[in-house]
Amino acid sequence: xxxxxxxxxxxxxxxxxxxxxxxxxxxxxxxxxxxxxxxxxxxxxxxxxxxxxxxxxxxxxxxxxxxxxxxxxxxxxxxxxxxxxxxxxxxxxxxxxxxxxxxxxxxxxxxxxxxxxxxxxxxxxxxxxxxxxxxxxxxxxxxxxxxxxxxxxxxxxxxxxxxxxxxxxxxxxxxxxxxxxxxxxxxxxxxxxxxxxxxxxxxxxxxxxxxxxxxxxxxxxxxxxxxxxxxxxxxxxxxxxxxxxxxxxxxxxxxxxxxxxxxxxxxxxxxxxxxxxxxxxxxxxxxxxxxxxxxxxxxxxxxxxxxxxxxxxxxxxxxxxxxxxxxxxxxxxxxxxxxxxxxxxxxxxxxxxxxxxxxxxxxxxxxxxxxxxxxxxxxxxxxxxxxxxxxxxxxxxxxxxxxxxxxxxxxxxxxxxxxxxxxxxxxxxxxxxxxxxxxxxxxxxxxxxxxxxxxxxxxxxxxxxxxxxxxxxxxxxxxxxxxxxxxxxxxxxxxxxxxxxxxxxxxxxxxxxxxxxxxxxxxxxxxxxxxxxxxxxxxxxxxxxxxxxxxxxxxxxxxxxxxxxxxxxxxxxxxxxxxxxxxxxxxxxxxxxxxxxxxxxxxxxxxxx
Length: 609
Fold this sequence. Notes:
With 609 residues, this protein is α+β, with helices and mostly antiparallel strands. The protein has a domain at 7-210: Beta-galactosidase, Chain A, domain 5 (Distorted Sandwich). Helices cover 35% and strands 19% of the residues. The chain has 13 helices and 28 strands. Strands 6-7-8-11-17-15-14-13 form an eight-stranded antiparallel sheet. Strands 1-2-3-4 form a four-stranded antiparallel sheet, with no helix packed on it. Helix 4 packs parallel to helix 6 and helix 6 packs antiparallel against helix 7 (364-384). It is globular, with a radius of gyration of 25 Å.
């Protein structure tokens, strides 16, 4: 795979990546953060796959069923045609409880003729470290691994199981199915049941999209991104993952390979704003509750990220037996960044708490808990805002006085002041307002560089940092302030290359970055729009949309020259920023249309009645 040409299907418990040719190459069961049972994504030989071979001269096309997370791959062979529908069941039962089993269904629908196909069923449990054994038991294939921790999965099908296991040629002249499950099934699995699961899941996604706010422009891109974000929302806890994969490299052959199957608190503010902005208040509230559940009271340490179950210890280790995606090593699981000190986290959390007060109703006890947490966060800002930290991009050894971290400390105090005003706690307003102004003055004095006319990455350097594009988003500075306008222009000049944007270009722990960070490109689109360069923003945005894969999905990074997708996939932050920019551009164009319409209906010189 040269461009991460995968589709993703999921049900808010786990997710699978299906290649453009219908090969299942990434699936972790029972949950997102479990060990992979199909992982050819990270090792074509040992990782494990469930593929199809229809012989030469086969035409394959792939798309999502309209407004769903059901993936359709159509195979047209010289002998006939069939469709493979991949999905993970998700719907509500009669008691309105969610059904979201650890299952992947591969529904084979006959279309024409008698196409021939070999199914290559090769699971590799526990990241393929040890040999996986498979054996037929009555109605299913059981696969298991005994070395170390025991693990197993089950495959049900109405096709001859020996032929499936042996990879023998089969003729498709009617509908068939495969059901892969972490659990042994208690009920009989047949085609009627599979079709019912398909129809229920299809209706669920269609209804979910129907509840999404409609925008006049970029609707399909917004819908696909929203559906992708929904799949990253872990049902059991409300956590939202950064991505469903681990160790997809930021640049081929380099070692910037990280596990992203965790929930970053930093993304919380944008997630809640986008979910509420698209009409999904329930999902926003569940995510907010996850955040509140993991934020400690009083003086306990706040982490930048947590496991999807709320785990605090995310020990990082390497899997040396895997070759890595496109030979990029090491392959890592866990993420040592959870130990890092990042001062921007306080601003993100305070922004979330303030949004909670203004968006949702709370009873007295909840309100008191939120206020206690807010005062705890403010104390931490008072104590830490003058200190250096690792920054938003998670430098592993370089503590600096990052301007964005200072800005988010200002955000923390600003939201604290607003919460205190909202609650009538005026004794805090005066004290916190003073600290807020101290932080602002410090940033203006040390973060603004008059020589290059921009806010720099850190007090200690003159480098540009794309994170500073967010200064206006958080309200630290007005979009029309000449200092912000100039900062946007300097970032565009120094970090933009071939239409894509670096996070930064100065050396970090692993050398000089060589790939574009997708979210930063969308941030620049929004910033250009905010400073009045709307036509340029629109052109850049529409160009960026063309760099998505064949299904409209984005990863974390891109190659500046080839535009190849790189990094973990699909990346929630990239799709959040896409939606954010699309909404702003859509609203901006509506305003422009209304102005044009007004001029047409009421030409200059004529009275308006």
